[in-house]
Fold:
Amino acid sequence: MSHYAQAFAGWADAQDMNFAVPHFRGCSGQLNLAPRAYHSGDHAEINWVLERLRSEHQAAGGQKLLVVGISLGGNALMRWAALQGHQAALKADAIAAICAPLDLMQSGLAIGRGLNRQIYTPMFLRSMKPKALAKWAQHPGLFDKTALMAAKDLYAFDNVFTAPLHGFKGTDDYWTNASAKPLMRDIRLPALALNALNDPFVPANSLPVQGDVSNSVTLWQPEQGGHVGFAKGIWPGHLSAAPEAVGGWLLQAVGQGTKTGEARHG
Structure:
């Protein structure tokens, strides 16, 4: 389980709350069997998970369901909330996205430029290409394997693999239409978007402003925090700051607590 999932698990345990970590297809360490994998705007997958969790929680006594999406999962979560509109409140009570690339085009281009291209692009591709090849082994001919191996950045990778496997015409279509930011005026349940202004993957000028979102959305944009960092205390620090602040906001949003933490506008 990721370091930030563990940090949220610790916070939930301290609040005596149930805690679950849903994984997108292929992200749990076990490859799914279908040709498709997951993508950054996979709202249908989120809808299925939340319907399942809501059903189980109602059977257990009608508890509140608070949902946090991290990075790409945060974009998909916000997109789900926007597309669901008023129906979202039937499946969750409040949501939060942490360090989500809400404008996938701007984030994708940022990762492919400068120092990011030298450091992070190879790191991502070292993880993503083997997963894609495992999918090809399941379904030979599913995509152009030679083109995938030649991909030098996320744009090329998504153009060969992610976009066509999930119904998009190509990377431009995928990054444009899977982004949550253009839809966030349609969100109707309490929603928090936390983005650090120094996130290397999410350019500050790509972040939504209040005019881009509905009155149900709160924007926290602190100056520091990096990409899912928000470390607290003496080096190397600990990661309780984000769970405490975001968790406190979620509890307050459903009338079960007060806002905590200092993650606000920078």
